[in-house]
Specification:
Layout lengths: L18 H12 L3 E2 H4 L5 H6 L4 E4 L3 E2 L9 E2 L9 H12 L3 E6 L10 H14 L4 E5 L7 H9 L4 E3 L9 H4 L5 H13 L3 E8 L5 H13 L4 E6 L16 H14 L3 E4 L9 H6 L2
Parallel strand pairs: 2-5, 3-4, 5-6, 6-7, 7-8, 8-9, 9-10
Antiparallel strand pairs: 1-2
Helix pairs in contact: 4-5, 5-6, 9-10
Length: 284
């Protein structure tokens, strides 16, 4: 892997500071919770945390997979924490959130991939916060319908699963995950009366035809909400950035996706899965 490239001007980010940021940081740490904002080194953490929003990450902060774009730690995870659903629900109550996004590390070490724990978290969060809307950004659960059914039974408002990149590059940057398997997960979500959402990154070496084909594949799978953002290399050990995509090109992809029939499209350099997530549910 090479050196981290200098960011262009349009990728300058808000500094992670401020009163709301500090309050949320203290509360998350005090309750022993994790966020993908921190584990994934999200460029929007300063903006989102200052606004009092975060994407909570359950089942620990150690992933069983080692995808080459992701900053989350890889290794042998600890057993699921039975107190985590309650602490998360209470944290959301204290923050007085109207919408939350929940994601998790991959837990291939667990017989059900963590699906039952997901169910317990969603149900507990809903019990303590009955007016809350919930988006779940889920792993692929190896594409097994019986595990996806457990998530569906918990009745979140929106379920998201990211395809991450184009078909050709999937084996290079994702471990264990398969392009077609991700499409099948999205399709299963869509067929079971839930809003299906997905996203992918640009700047890893994909070409225009591959981007177009990926959007077509997602739309045909039943994806209604699409996010497209710039891949940013989180450390010298991760995949190199091949190209920084201009804001004008991101706008072109947004317009193209809308023309294809996607209901909502977020396409810009700093867009991530949970970008404007609260608007995606309210427009459903």
């Amino acid at each position: 892997m090479g050196k981290v490239r200098k960011l262009p001007e349009w990728l300058k980010m808000q500094r992670a500071s401020g009163e709301n940021y500090s309050r949320l940081k203290r509360l998350i740490e005090h309750n022993g919770l994790h966020t993908i904002c921190t584990s994934g080194n999200c460029p929007n953490k300063g903006e989102c945390w200052n606004a009092g929003t975060a994407t909570f990450m359950i089942l620990g902060d150690i992933c069983t997979r080692a995808c080459k774009f992701c900053n989350t730690r890889t290794g042998k995870p600890l057993p699921p924490d039975p107190g985590e659903p309650g602490r998360l629900a209470e944290t959301i109550r204290i923050l007085e959130l109207k919408h939350c996004v929940i994601t998790s590390v991959d837990r291939d070490d667990l017989p059900d991939g963590g699906a039952r724990f997901w169910y317990d978290v969603i149900r507990k969060v809903r019990e303590v916060n009955p007016a809350l809307t919930i988006e779940c950004l889920i792993p692929d659960f190896d594409g097994k319908h019986e595990f996806l059914d457990i998530i569906l039974a918990a009745e979140p408002d929106l379920i998201s699963h990211n395809v991450e990149t184009v078909r050709r590059l999937t084996p290079q940057i994702r471990t264990r995950a398969k392009y077609d398997r991700s499409l099948s997960v999205i399709n299963y979500i869509s067929l079971n009366m839930k809003i299906a959402k997905s996203g992918f990154m640009l700047g890893l070496g994909e070409n225009e035809q591959e981007i177009d084909e990926t959007m077509n594949d997602l739309f045909q799978a039943g994806c209604e909400i699409l996010t497209i953002g710039q891949y940013l290399k989180p450390s010298p050990e991760h995949m190199d950035v091949v190209e920084y995509i201009s804001p004008e090109r991101f706008e072109k992809y947004r317009e193209s996706a809308l023309q294809k029939g996607f209901r909502i499209v977020e396409s810009a350099s700093l867009v991530r899965s949970s970008f404007h997530a609260e608007k995606h549910v309210s427009s459903g």
